[in-house]
Amino acid sequence: xxxxxxxxxxxxxxxxxxxxxxxxxxxxxxxxxxxxxxxxxxxxxxxxxxxxxxxxxxxxxxxxxxxxxxxxxxxxxxxxxxxxxxxxxxxxxxxxxxxxxxxxxxxxxxxxxxxxxxxxxxxxxxxxxxxxxxxxxxxxxxxxxxxxxxxxxxxxxxxxxxxxxxxxxxxxxxxxxxxxxxxxxxxxxxxxxxxxxxxxxxxxxxxxxxxxxxxxxxxxxxxxxxxxxxxxxxxxxxxxxxxxxxxxxxxxxxxxxxxxxxxxxxxxxxxxxxxxxxxxxxxxxxxxxxxxxxxxxxxxxxxxxxxxxxxxxxxxxxxxxxxxxxxxxxxxxxxxxxxxxxxxxxxxxxxxxxxxxxxxxxxxxxxxxxxxxxxxxxxxxxxxxxxxxxxxxxxxxxxxxxxxxxxxxxxxxxxxxxxxxxxxxxxxxxxxxxxxxxxxxxxxxxxxxxxxxxxxxxxxxxxxxxxxxxxxxxxxxxxxxxxxxxxxxxxxxxxxxxxxxxxxxxxxxxxxxxxxxxxxxxxxxxxx
Length: 528
Hints:
Strand content: 15-25%
Number of helices: 19
Shape: globular
Low-confidence stretches: none
């Protein structure tokens, strides 16, 4: 995160950083104001970072691949690519394939797709390519599409083409949507890998973990969260154990999520509050919050941070590790020592990236020092910057991706594009923030953001109730008429159960990541 302030150019795409990741947003503003950093913001809405940007590329939702391909077309045509980096660090035949594809993505053609003026695409490309070091920062505005995987790979293409990987102030930097998403993935909270991102399909990997744990492991990947919901709706999954997640507000197409959960024979929810999902559960296991337990978090930049207990958990609430261990015991598996420090030691013994990290070492770090994985042994200083000399796979692999339109396009019946996201005042499904009187006074309920022209066209008034409808359902919500969204686009934050945006969103998924297309749905609006 410190590197952000040293960048000479930053491309923020698919991220309303100051509202969704405000501390990192401050770093970006500091880079602009104190380091003469050129800021490019690619975002359909006018966000606060636009005030700091040298160039705001107001693209249509779902056109990210086209925009980035257009920028790379300019770089190739104007000789702005970092040829020494490409020749030394990347597979050149893949680069030749990319260049061949990019010929079709002229700024003029890309302008027709994205709505961004061709000259703005050229200027953004030159700004990014000519900077000494340039960083890409993105969030779920990139990943929550049916083409989310292509979006990310296209950003990686841009970083490799310009040599902006492996040095300070560069990189392809995903901002994690919730605390410790990075750490959870690191230790195997994914259906296709074990801790350390080792594939469950690999016999040697399974043998290592079977020996450590004394159990036989499945040979095939499990289901993703979206696949589990579909399987539950179809009756293929009979029971579900949900920990710290609220799919009854956060899943796309909430009617489908409700059908899936109600179709289960048995639902267990472990959480710190009685969420909308917990209210459907057969059993609720009250958990301790972060301030009531010991452990670690791994941040967006792979920094491993100690978490220390500040107070006792209320009532019957217990730390997650104790709940899981007791549950395992009652199901016939006697778990070993699950004290937090011992768990960290086990992670280190089985996960090469964490091999040199322990509670004792983290506790002994001097003020201001940080420890990032990979950290293979106790003498290793950690790795704040990845890929400094070589990529994990060896040579960099360009992945040419053609632009594909979102699954739903506006039409005569549904003429608007609905996109969803967050606002500064609320956090995720509001489980915690909406219990704060102060926050509720500032931000009591949701709004549908709509442009003045569209509001007049569809008879919607500022501050009055409107009805927003998609092919999944409809919600009543107060209208906010604002020039911050363009004509043809409406925006709804998803935090509010009484006007739940995800009743409207499309649950069609990216074929690789299985992430739903939260960011683009065809919609219509009318006055209530």
